[in-house]
Inverse folding.
């Protein structure tokens, strides 16, 4: 007989140990931290492959999704009678009435030799109280994995653990430098650690190694892209963006850097509009604008009004929806347009 399961909430750290045993019929990943959610899904897929789940079907759920596909996938027999994984990516976090019914029906009779992997954003309190969400969390067939973000105070320890996993040992100063550079973006931190693996001598990372990684980072660096855009170098910005794409940098990393700068510019522009002196606005920003960067930021501020910067922030939100599959359009094209607008290229602003 198949093993009996109890409904369980697992955190990211507990998942690895759990996957060493028998797999549950259903796994639900919920969270907004892209890197950790991706790695958790990778772990489940790897364990499933190791336990003979050799087929895989992936469904991306949008407003027009046919939930009958889930019924068909669960009811149909594998062509080669092999175990399979069905992935259901609900990027909006809202399956709708038909989706809720389909999920409840599936959970009532999970098919044998099939593992269902559901990916969701973080579910707010009201959503967790819905019938379908409670079923995913409490059903005996389901293992619910909550992916919590890494808080700012936990980031240095997280970086140290990732370095150790990469076979590296780092000084406290090196860890703090990495944490300051990535400012909470875990995808950027993971990429920094990959660079350090190439530069570290005998697996040791000190402040000098981190500085070398910054200086000798990939030819087209995300932070260099931001500086080029702030400096108004539109053609150079476009070349750097194309280079980042060619080097495999993921769209969420680039969007994070652009949106971070746009939030800063929108906030400072609004404060100056309200009468605050520019130097005081630079100092009150979070994080404050360093003296060396103030000329760059001052130059960029002249390109758009406070309302214009806010419209660009809304554009960044639409790109985030495109990346998550919640909106139509090509994210790379939209990122290119956003970066060029930041650089002062004469294009129509969004919503104009």
């Amino acid at each position: 007989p198949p093993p009996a399961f109890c409904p369980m909430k697992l955190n990211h750290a507990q998942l690895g140990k759990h996957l060493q045993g028998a797999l549950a019929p259903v796994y639900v990943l919920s969270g907004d931290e892209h890197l950790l959610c991706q790695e958790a899904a990778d772990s489940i897929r790897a364990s499933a492959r190791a336990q003979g789940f050799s087929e895989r079907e992936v469904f991306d759920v949008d407003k027009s999704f046919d939930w009958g596909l889930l019924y068909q996938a669960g009811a149909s027999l594998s062509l080669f009678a092999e175990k399979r994984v069905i992935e259901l990516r609900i990027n909006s976090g809202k399956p709708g009435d038909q989706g809720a019914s389909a999920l409840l029906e599936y959970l009532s009779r999970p098919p044998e030799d099939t593992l269902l992997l559901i990916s969701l954003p973080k579910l707010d309190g009201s959503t967790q109280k819905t019938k379908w969400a409670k079923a995913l969390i409490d059903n005996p067939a389901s293992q619910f994995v909550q992916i919590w973000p890494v808080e700012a105070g936990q980031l240095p320890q997280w970086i140290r653990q990732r370095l150790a996993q990469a076979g590296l040992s780092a000084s406290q100063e090196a860890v703090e430098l990495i944490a300051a550079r990535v400012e909470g973006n875990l995808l950027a931190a993971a990429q920094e650690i990959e660079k350090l693996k190439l530069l570290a001598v005998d697996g040791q990372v000190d402040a000098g190694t981190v500085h070398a990684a910054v200086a000798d980072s990939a030819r087209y660096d995300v932070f260099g892209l931001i500086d080029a855009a702030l400096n108004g170098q539109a053609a150079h910005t476009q070349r750097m963006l194309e280079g980042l794409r060619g080097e495999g940098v993921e769209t969420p990393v680039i969007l994070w850097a652009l949106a971070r700068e746009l939030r800063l510019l929108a906030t400072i522009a609004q404060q100056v509009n309200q009468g605050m002196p520019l130097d005081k606005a630079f100092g009150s920003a979070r994080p404050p604008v360093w003296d060396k960067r103030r000329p760059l930021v001052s130059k960029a501020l002249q390109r758009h009004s406070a309302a214009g910067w806010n419209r660009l922030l809304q554009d960044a939100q639409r790109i985030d929806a495109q990346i998550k599959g919640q909106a139509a359009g090509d994210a790379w094209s939209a990122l290119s347009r956003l970066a060029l607008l930041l650089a002062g290229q004469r294009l129509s602003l969004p919503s104009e």
Observations:
- Residues 1-7 have pLDDT under 50 and may be disordered.
- The CA atoms of residues 265 and 301 lie 7 Å apart.
- The beta strands are 8-11, 26-30, 53-60, 83-89, 114-120, 142-146, 169-170, 204-205.
- The radius of gyration is 23 Å.
